[in-house]
User: Fold this.
Amino acid sequence: MAVRIRSLLVSGPLMVPLSGGGSVYLSPGEVTGELPDVDVTNNAMVDKMRARRLIDVEQVEEESSEPEEPEEGSGPGEEPEPDPGPETHQARAPRRGTRAEQR
Assistant:
């Protein structure tokens, strides 16, 4: 079974040590991809972080093995809708510089 780890911190990065020897680095509110549950079970640091409410560990439900039925409009001979492409982000305003540079 797989799990996901979510950082519950409001600010600052968080390093979560895994049982397999690796670590996961999370920004505030970030969620990991699917991880094997053996990386968090019987892991004292993960248990401590959960108790301190720094992280939340959630079980990922396994998908059913039944084949999905095709959606309407996606049958053979019909063209799929084009991919809208990557989302665009608004550009940030340029930095003004340090106080010493402004004087």
Observations:
- The longest strand covers residues 2-7.
- Residues 2-60 form one domain.
